[in-house]
Each structure stands twice: as structure tokens, then as C-alpha cells.
Amino acid sequence: MSVVCKLQDDPAADVDIKCILDNAKTVAVVGISTKEDSSSQKVAKYLQEHGFRVFAVNPNCEEVLGEKCYPDLKSIPGHVDVVDIFRNPDAIAAIVEEAVGIGAGTVWMQLGLEHQEAAQMARHAGLNVVMNRCMKMEHTRYFENGKTSPFPDNDEPVDDVQQR
To answer: In which order are the strands placed within the sheet that holds 106-109?
Structure first.
């Protein structure tokens, strides 16, 4: 069950993002790639390493990062706290509709992704919405003790989107 972190602002306020990251346990990474150097895989791996249960969502994969790939959100067995989207903007509305259908707590659109109509649909259904932010970067900013940079080990920001 998701903890409610109601975002009152668009864009999401820092306090709301921290609340989501602090309370989420499960993340569905939609559009995850099998390529080790892809942004989606880097973010998913980081989330795994920091205690999140990651569900890989890609109908063209069987397994990524040791996790079974699911063809869509409704195939995931269990609750999803955050739906982290790595897809083209034209796919976002359908993903958000599916996120609403499964009762996800938050729709998170990675850096470079925004879809106002889909965001409004999610908010209307009671979901939190974060757009144009990297989940890895935001988590690092709040929870990596002693770091002065938002990027672990001088990594570059993760900001590209899988083009599927």
C-alpha cells in the first residue's frame, strides 16, 4: 500500500519528491532496456542497490538485471508504488492510464519527459505525478550521505529516454 504524498504544486516540490522516495518500496521501470549502458538500466540498477523492489516492464525482454520482464503494468504480481517511465512522449498517456488502472501511487516521468494531459489524468485519479526528473538523481540528492554532488562517483546525469 502506498503512503500518500499529495503533490500540490506543478512541478513537484522537493518535499513531495522526498516523501515519495522515502516511502516507495516498489518501482516499475517501464521501457527498461537490456543494454547495460542505457539510462533505464542504470536507474533500475541504482534503485535495486538502494533497496527498492524493481519490476522490469518491456514486452520485448525476458529478463533484465536478474528480474523477470513483464509485458505491461497489469501483468505485475503485486502493488506498484512508483511507475518510472522511460518511453517516448506519445506512449505516456497509455502508460498513465494503465498506472491508474493498477492503483499505482505515483507516475514518474524521467528527465526530458512531460505530458500535461496524462499528468492531469493521473492527478484526477489520485496519483502523485513527477515530471522531467531523474529518480536516481533525486534519490541521490536526498539519501546519499556526505555527497556534495547529485551524481554518485562523478557519473553523468541520467537524462536520455529509451526510444521505443
So the answer is: 63-64, 67-70, 53-57, 26-30, 82-85, 106-109, 128-130
